[in-house]
Amino acid sequence: MLLSNIVCILHRQGRKFGIIYRIRHDKRTGRVGKELRLNEKTELRKRWMAREAGFTEDYITESNAGIARNLFTLPEFQNAGTVLFFYSIWREPDTHEMIRHALELGKTAALPRTYPKGVMEARRIQGLNDLIPSRFGIPEPPESAAAIEPDALDFIVVPSVVFDREGFRIGHGVGYYDRYLPLSRAFACGIARENMLARRVPREPHDFQVNALVTERRILRF
After folding, report:
1. 3 state DSSP class of 189
2. Facing residues of 113 across strands?
């Protein structure tokens, strides 16, 4: 097959599946090699965020309540002394009420404090009024907040743009949780709206599967 034909086929398939190929021809061997660069996750991220933007306020409110209700029924959450949450923004499942509820139960609540190169730490909070804007504009604990080691956590609430039905996720592309979750033995629980579940998302070796996934309709364990 001519090299030009191979390039044409790969580019056409790349457009179909959200993949960009760079073709390299080895003049010495006559073989055609390829370096594959995936942008499938980027395209899926945009697509699912656009889907989320179309949800009604009624659905957002109802699913927030259902997700929280199901999360609170988990024995792992009920037995946890120290819980790492994330600070929800825009149309992510609401964690603010979850944090308040955990504090009312006497649990130690923590939120991520972020650093360059995808590094984050768990920092203890006494309430949501303790927070300051991060470099991304998302509220996070100040530097003075007490640090909690990954192995001192009992339960981690994991965010995503989209989860699949096997507990894998597409995040926002920075890699904080992919780096952090393997450091902890805590129970990792994703939360997502039922209408934000994909059948399967692309996976790479560093992608982390959560222990459970909670939606407003069900609890999936892996």
Report:
1. strand
2. 121
CB burial readout 87-112, b (16+ within 10 A) else e: bbeebbbbbeebbeebbeeebbbbbb
8 Å CB contact between 84 and 98: no
Q: Which of 216, 115, 131, 207 lies closest to 169 in space, CA to CA? A: 207
Domains, the chain, with CATH or none: 3-38 (no CATH), 56-221 (3.40.50.10420)
Task: Return the structure tokens found at 147.
Answer: 């640090």
**What CA–CA distance (Å, rounded) separates 70 from 222?**
16
Residues near 43 by beta carbon (within 8 Å), at least 6 away in sequence: 18
pLDDT in tens, 172-222: 888 899 999 999 999 999 999 999 999 999 988 888 999 999 999 999 999
Task: Give pTM, 2 decimals.
Answer: 0.81
